[in-house]
Amino acid sequence: MSEMFREMVEFFSLADSEKQQYEAKSASDPIKCGNFNVANTSNQSFTLWREYLKLYVHPDFHCPHQPQLLRDVVQEYTQMIRVLTRKLIEAVCEALELNQRRYVDEILKMESSFQLFATNYYPRCPQPDQAIGIPPHTDHGLFTFLIHNGVAGLQIEHDGKWFNADSPKNSILVNAADQLEIFTNGRCKSVKHRAVVNEEKDRISIVVANGPSGEAVSIGGLRWWRKMGEQSIVQ
């Protein structure tokens, strides 16, 4: 993990001219980066205080050429996360008394699963009450895996209140995501969360979002989910 954080620091330290080639032009860009901007809600305007890099890494792998070691560490880490994702899906199947082989391989098509690697750099902020790292949201996909450099900043919502999720350094925090809630007919709940900033320390987080294959959602799949004995939340 320490090697991966070193590569992330090196990427964000690249000259702007080097990073400009990856500036986000479309949500579908397989490699995209960006930095501070302003977000607006119905009654508030605030600064998004972060730089980010997002990569589509499976089923096709995409990565910047610099830093030189970035490709290798991202490939190794995301491959390990895919193995872990499969084990978690199998555990969900067992808990819900589903046929693991059919659910994992035929319905979700995990061999060609979608995977996104994202890293966020939150520099020290002089006015943290006027900015936010990432606004409240839930994640797409099945599971999201998050690690950080030891600086807190993740918060989760429960019963309308926000709580710090201060996971230890070098631990992996796992969030249930939107498609897991759908595929389990609401038995597993997607977790709303946000990232806040501080004025004392820089924070780096690394997130890997994992979803089923893009071919997974089908009418046949819906029929299978409804066999779970509840009215499907998928309409």
Summarize the structure.
The protein has 235 residues and is an alpha+beta fold. 27% of the residues lie in helices and 28% in strands.
Report on this model:
This protein has helices spanning 2-12, 16-19, 70-95, 100-107, 178-183, 219-226, and strands spanning 31-34, 37-40, 45-48, 51-58, 114-122, 131-132, 134-137, 143-148, 154-158, 161-164, 173-176, 193-195, 203-211. It has a 6-stranded antiparallel sheet with strand order 1-4-5-13-8-11. The chain has a 4-stranded antiparallel sheet with strand order 7-12-9-10, with no helix packed on it. Helices cover 27% and strands 28% of the residues. With 235 residues, the protein is of the alpha+beta class. It is globular, with a radius of gyration of 19 Å. It has a single domain (2-36, 45-226), classed as B-lactam Antibiotic, Isopenicillin N Synthase, Chain (Jelly Rolls, Sandwich), CATH 2.60.120.330. Helix 3 (70-95) packs across helix 4. The chain has 6 helices and 13 strands. The longest helix is centred in the middle third of the chain and has 26 residues, at 70-95. One of its GO terms (molecular function) is oxidoreductase activity. It comes from Salvia splendens.
